[in-house]
Specification:
Blueprint (H helix, E strand, L loop, with lengths): L1 E5 L4 E6 L9 E5 L3 H24 L13 H10 L1 H5 L2 E3 L4 E3 L3 H12 L1 E8 L33 E4 L2 E4 L3 E8 L5 H4 L22 H4 L13 E3 L15 E7 L2 H6 L19
Antiparallel strand pairs: 1-2, 2-3, 4-5, 6-11, 7-8, 9-10, 9-11
């Protein structure tokens, strides 16, 4: 796989694209004469023909449709949370207050809106041996070491003395002074008001004070309650005594589509994840 690219006047560069070797294999040579140019062009045309012939014989699977939000859905998300979007937050990397970005929108707005089910448990000593991937240990309860979704042959998993439904995923560690989803947790048992899911999405109808009460003896300091991070990354991050939040939810696009169809994307606007 060679590609001829123009470089300086009177020269060209042939760059090996890394099919078997690294990008560091780079060759330069003086520009060829007209005869060499003609021969090179013929070789390229022949190679292009061979590739086209090969490609035409290769089966191409049908790509799944790619769905996206309607512009009206995006406007509704912004305007229904307008005051929140106007607030700035402290960014420890920039060392100053900055505007909200998608790194704030996802944990603070999308996760609460798409939640269908939630549990809160405090891990005990007897739980620790189960907090492993089923790929590593048949007795483990997680899908993998990085996917902390409960996976079991039974409908529930016993954690912290509580029967937690299979299919819920560990999201965060709840504590006093936690910075994530404080506005959500400030609502207490009424936090399900931020859920926008319906029974048709699999939303649990049991009141949260009955199935997921907030413990009174949370670790940490301060009056504000929140999750310590936007997610727990691996099973190794979990320790005895941690109060963890487990959730099950749906995709935002499935929620806003309602009973109507998801519409395939016919145009795409690129985005920038930074402050601007």
């Amino acid at each position: 796989c060679f590609e001829v690219l123009p470089a300086k006047w009177g020269k060209h560069r042939r760059i090996f694209d890394g099919c078997q070797d690294s990008w560091s294999q780079l060759l330069e040579q003086e520009a060829p004469d007209e005869a060499r140019r003609s021969s090179l062009a013929g070789e390229q045309n022949a190679e292009a023909g061979r590739r086209a012939s090969l490609t035409s014989r290769m089966p191409v699977p049908d790509a799944p449709p790619f769905f996206g939000l309607r512009l009206g859905d995006l406007h509704e998300l912004v305007h229904s949370n307008w005051d929140w979007f106007q607030e700035s937050r402290w960014n420890k990397f920039a060392n100053r207050n900055v505007r909200k970005t998608m790194y704030d929108v996802c944990p603070e707005l999308i996760i609460p809106a798409t939640t269908c089910q939630e549990r809160i448990v405090t891990l005990r000593k007897e739980d620790m041996g189960k907090l492993r991937s089923r790929l590593q240990d048949p007795e483990g309860i997680f899908v993998s070491d990085s996917d902390l979704t409960l996976h079991s042959q039974t409908s529930t998993v016993r954690l912290g003395g509580v029967d937690v439904p299979t299919g819920l995923t560990v999201h965060g560690k709840l504590r006093r002074g936690g910075a994530i989803r404080r506005r959500y947790w400030a609502l207490g048992a009424a936090r399900s008001e931020q859920w926008r899911t319906l029974e048709c999405h699999g939303r649990e109808i049991s009141p949260l004070e009955a199935v997921a009460p907030i413990p009174s003896d949370l670790p940490g300091e301060g009056d504000a309650i929140g999750e310590a991070s936007d997610r727990v990354w691996t099973a190794g991050d979990l320790q005895e005594g941690d109060t963890i939040v487990l959730r099950r939810g749906i995709k935002y696009i499935d929620m806003v589509a309602g009973e109507g169809p998801n519409l395939p994307i016919d145009s795409f606007a690129s985005h920038f994840w930074g402050e601007e």
